[in-house]
Specification:
alpha+beta, 2 domains, elongated, 36% helix
């Protein structure tokens, strides 16, 4: 292994040492998915061997490159010294670029969770993506240095897509490649008309939590829909209405579902809003406190296939990506 020209943390050296000798074959390879080689071919990471005998050799080299903090030239020399592969630094660089989709699949497979929830009707199952973004800090940073945009496949119990950006890139569905029939479930960080348009253009459906002030709605005739008077009106604790939203000169029919929150949860939510407003030196608005009593969801799912109660239950499944 070439000596480093810059300080390297001891934990990194310990991790890298596990990639040498018999430790790799004895302790790491058995923990990898059984279809690792087949997926490498499917994701075009190892179509032509050319110096690499198997997919585990490619993975071993890529991990050494990351954990060793070395150049591709150093990686090539290290691979030759341990008898892993005899390919150029340019070849290693190309291998890394082609392995992105395969490595993303491997990440999802290793993080796989429990099987699909039993309450999802088999006749109506599509790929259900729980979308969320989280902040990542770097040493000496501000705590909001990087953002990780994730899509968790609820049925497969694993990550479907991951994208890292800097702090200046906001959360939106444009980060993800959606497929026809996908169902996107996200909180009010994605609760904007743009999300409805982005998903609809890719023939996907959405279940989004919204705030009325940032999600203008209209009735079928085009007149504004007043959400607050609708909620304040006496009626059931669970209600729905079909309305419209507009984005980029296109109209989209959506279903607005409102579910009243239990009193104890309302008090807790209102207290959180008061603390947040106090932290930023603002006065909490009465409207904000009123909305804390409701969960407001927008969905483009077909009402004949997904009832209001099922849509609400689907949104509540978001806790799985939150835990992840």
């Amino acid at each position: 292994m070439p000596s480093q020209t810059h300080p390297t943390n001891a934990p990194t050296l310990v991790q890298l040492s596990q990639l040498t000798g018999d430790t790799w074959a004895r302790e790491l390879v058995p923990r990898l998915p059984a279809d690792l080689a087949a997926q490498a071919r499917t994701h075009q990471a190892l179509q032509r061997r050319r110096g690499l005998l198997q997919s585990t050799d490619l993975l071993r080299g890529l991990l050494a490159y990351v954990l060793g903090a070395m150049s591709f030239r150093q990686l090539g020399a290290w691979a030759v010294l341990i008898g892993l592969a005899d390919i150029s630094d340019t070849a290693w660089r190309k291998r890394l670029l082609r392995a992105s989709a395969w490595l993303l699949w491997l990440l999802g497979a290793l993080l796989a969770g429990p099987p699909a929830p039993a309450w999802l009707p088999a006749s109506r199952r599509h790929r259900i993506l729980l979308i969320d973004a989280t902040k990542l800090a770097q040493p000496g940073g501000t705590g909001d240095d990087w953002r990780l945009h994730t899509a968790y496949d609820l049925e497969a119990g694993r990550m479907a897509q991951v994208r890292g950006t800097d702090r200046h890139t906001g959360a939106h569905l444009g980060h993800f490649a959606l497929q026809p029939g996908d169902i996107v479930v996200a909180d009010n960080g994605y609760g904007y008309r743009r999300s409805v348009a982005t998903a609809s253009q890719q023939q996907a459906a959405v279940v989004l939590r919204i705030t009325p002030a940032t999600f203008p709605l209209a009735r079928v005739a085009g007149t504004p829909f007043r959400g607050l008077p609708w909620l304040r009106r006496r009626g059931p604790a669970f209600r729905r209405v079909t309305v419209w939203c507009r984005w980029a000169r296109q109209r989209y029919a959506v279903r607005l579902i409102a579910a009243r929150v239990p009193p104890a949860a309302v008090r807790a939510a209102q207290q959180r809003r008061r603390r947040r407003a106090q932290k930023h030196g603002r006065q909490v608005q009465a409207t904000t406190l009123s909305l804390a009593a409701w969960v407001l969801l927008i969905t483009t799912l077909d009402a004949t296939a997904w009832t209001d109660a099922e849509v609400l239950r689907l949104y509540r499944a978001r806790w799985q990506v939150e835990m992840l």
